[in-house]
Amino acid sequence: MFNLTGKRYLFLIISLIVIVPGTLSLIFKGLNVGIDFLGGANIELRPEKAVTIQQVRDLVSPFKLLDLQVVTGADTQLPGNQTIWIRLNTRIDKTVQTTITGDLQAKYPTNGNPNTPLSVSFDDLTLVPSGGGNARTVTVVTVSNFQKGVKPAISDIESVLSKLPLTSNPALGPSTSTPTPTTTATATATATGTPSATATVTGTPSATATANGSPTATATPKATNTPSTAAATPTPGKGTPSVLVTPTATPATASNPSNIPVKVDDVHQGTTTQTITLLTRTTVGTPALLAHFVNSGNYMQVLQNSTVSGSVASETTRNAILAVVAAAVLILLYISFAFRKVAKPWRYGTCAIIALLHDVLVVVGVFSILGWLFNLQIDALFITALLTVVGFSVHDTIVVFDRIRENMQRRTSETFDQVVNASLVQTMARSLNTSLTVLVTLSALTLFGGETIRVFTGALLLGIFSGTYSSIFNASMLLVIWERGELGLGRFSRGRTPDGREARELARSRG
Amino acid sequence: MRRGNLSILIFIILLAVGVAYIDLPNTPGIHILGINDSLQWKLGLDLQGGVSALLVPDGNYDNQTLQNEMPAVRDNIAQRVNGGLGVSEPSIRIVTSNGKPSISVELPGFSGNQTEAVNSLLKTGLLEFWNTGPSPVTIGSPFDPTQFTQYNTNNKPQFTGKDLDPNQVYVGQDQAGLPQINFAMKGDAVAAFGTFTGKNVGSYLTVTLDKVVIESAVIQSAITGPGVITGKFTTQSAQQVVTVLKYGALPIALKIASEQTIGPTLGQDSIQKSVLAAIIGLSLVILFMLLYYRLPGLLADLALLLYAATTLAIFKLIGVVLSLAGIAGFVLSVGMAVDANVLIFERVKEELRAGRLLASAIDIGWKRAWPSIRDSNISTLITCAVLYAFGSNFGASIIVGFATTLFLGVLISMFTAVVVTRAFLNLLVPTGVVSHPALFGLPAGSIATASLARRNSAV
Lengths: 511, 459
Prior knowledge:
heterodimer, B: elongated
């Protein structure tokens, strides 16, 4: 017969080898939690043409959005299904914006429905021509919220906007944005400024623009040497996002403040009611998104760009922990009751709870390490997986303990070590078979199942393996160690008998 | 003995037919005894999509109030969506746009009237009881407290939803079989309600929900115990009102800002892959049981199929929404459901090796395995109960849903493993066709003949 109890310290050390680094990692690094816990950004888009989820993912891939979830849908409420995008040849000032809004609203009146006026919004985007060349900043007008039944036509829009006034210095317009995705992983929305541009604008970037686009100071370019507008494009990666927006002043426009002709370069018309919702942990500025979309020829309207909370409330995690603690106490009581016919029944409950703690620590610890080693993030399902592990762990331990209980009453002539060892050997086939069936199903799910549940099934796989290990090699070994008074556990055992035999006989006579 | 087994067998067959009817993909549904359930699968947001709505505060709230109250609003809406069981798998988040918080709700698999469904979530749930003197008020009309100033001090209602005992609010039926809402007051309000109704016999008690009259009836006598609101309800609308009352009023009134149908988050190929994985996993379990335990394994596999079918049927009946993770959890539960069988068969094998006769080995093996099946499963049930209590008291539907499904799974697996497998074996053994040792995965000659067994048992 295998002598399992004789190697009890080996088994405990194996457990500690896993648990100690895991716990240290948990304490110092914590868990790498995902969007379900932290929240992030919720971006709602309306595309020009219907697109697939994969196309959206490809399109926004340069932004490197963390934990990106893409959901497509169809709006059921917004009237009309059309959005118009108008790309102008230049940036425009407030006066021209007012003119455009007025012209369009005159062309498409509200028909006595004052609650739903035509929505006209302006975004100044820095575009890089596809064939290369200098980036330039232009205004893109997004028109939406047409009255029900109204069918806007590109030709109508073009004729309405055929005669536009000259614009003043576009450098004084609203903030610039860059076609190069610059993202921050923080929750603060940041205008992607272009600090690198200032170096080439001969040292006088004195203009600051306020949020509403009306400048509080005018640009005063002292030198006339031409700064490269291309420099307005920050190099990806190293551009530190700046809250202060530096307008890109070009000397030509600065010296001639109001003589730029405005014309429509391009008009796009939406053809779909599709909406796209991006849920990500990364915050992206709306202008940066829009510029990227226009640059790549995929016109999209940003309906909403807001921060969201996690779907798991912070109290949920705390409550789950409290619930497990409460459950552990009740299980301790139940086991003490169920094992009342053997000596010191509460030891069985305590050892079962220690094994449970072991399994939880193994899973949480290993996932903490995987979190910073491989950037593996845990989601809401991780809580469910942990709860399953808790249930399985106790279940498994009790099956082994039950055999010890039975053998304690039948094999009164053997020592406690021998009884535990015999019980372990007898239940080994069952323990391995049950775990095997569960591990096989889980492995199938982990290997062939979808990626979204891999953390879930992975945590279960680890937890159930640990649960089987701890019921055989930890919980029972702790019983032996406690019975023998090793590791200083002797002080917890009043009136200890070396082989527990007297106690058992006493218990038998009581039961 | 055989007679008992036969009646169990009949019960098992009836159960199998019943759950098969429920599980059928094109099942006609159940439409009897006032139950109207079309028995369609409810698939999660990841598998089927659903409806998404943005709920914004309706009214003037200062930012501080909004920031403070939004988490409570979110929890309340989650509870309304989930009912008591926590199995509806909504996704509810607080969305902050320009510093203004609002609530984004995604509900899975809505095919019916979406706006209606979302609207029922939006009811503020402000229930008020008014004394309207000798005059009834039309049901469905907006309520104006200033018309009844002389009966209600300071235009304040006599009682509100906060005075109700949430555990005693439920949908009932009146004598005519029409739905009504049963309620009872709690705490001090019990006595106060009795006193009030006693003093005002003959007056009209008008009940309003969000300032709309839902009932106006004459007080016949003092109401000292539970009361009913008869109103004009359909079963569905009564259920909606009860759900709203049970979880209390929303601290902030909401309105729908936008609403859209949303597609599944997972691609079709991802779903197919997972279904394939589930089938592979289940087949491996079935194959393993068959190869390792032979005949008992085959019977256990049958019991396992019954387990799977029964669990799915109950999921359908109580409206468990199946997401990919839910399916994975279900597959896992099948793997765990064999545990009781494994425990029993290992014990039976042991007894057979010890030289017992087949019938008595089965009997004793069962008896010996029972305490560990009982204790291990009870401890799991305790865990479920605690998780359920915590989750529902603190509005954590993710914990509640887990506890509900695990609890059901454990109960059903105990039934199928212990009762069903045993009935099968007990029915087969006396026929004598199954006495070959290989059928039990044992070497030839290891099953005792009657004489040998007698000799052994005499030792």
